[in-house]
Prior knowledge:
This protein is α+β, with helices and mostly antiparallel strands. It has helices at about 1-25, 35-60, 70, and strands at about 85, 105-110, 110-115, 120-125. The protein has three helices and four strands, in the order αααββββ.
Amino acid sequence: MNTLIKAIVLSVSASVMAASAFAAPQDNHNQPKHVEQHQVEQHKKQGDQHKKQPVVQKAQAKKHTVKPSRDWKAGQVIPSQYRKGQSVDHKKYSKLTKPAKNQQWMKVNSDYVLINTVDHKIVKIIKD
Length: 128
């Protein structure tokens, strides 16, 4: 009886060992070892780059709102996304002067910006 139990245990353990050997990843013997390592390193770098991208996007999403009186200066070119902003009629606001030729008042967030419509440079900024 002991011999029968030993035989069964040995055959079961041998089949388990054989199954795990078949399930193990096989090395590609066609390529040298250093080529495989290089591919693994490249894959890791690509994975790291994908992980970093969402962090950059989150950082960009947390940017503060532009406050022209704080962030911009006269003589600076107005960023393109603000060029088609809300134009303002100077007559409705006492603190805004009459714009010269090729100039226009615009409201950006809570500030008023006088820009040159030809070269898009900031002439004056008035804090609201």
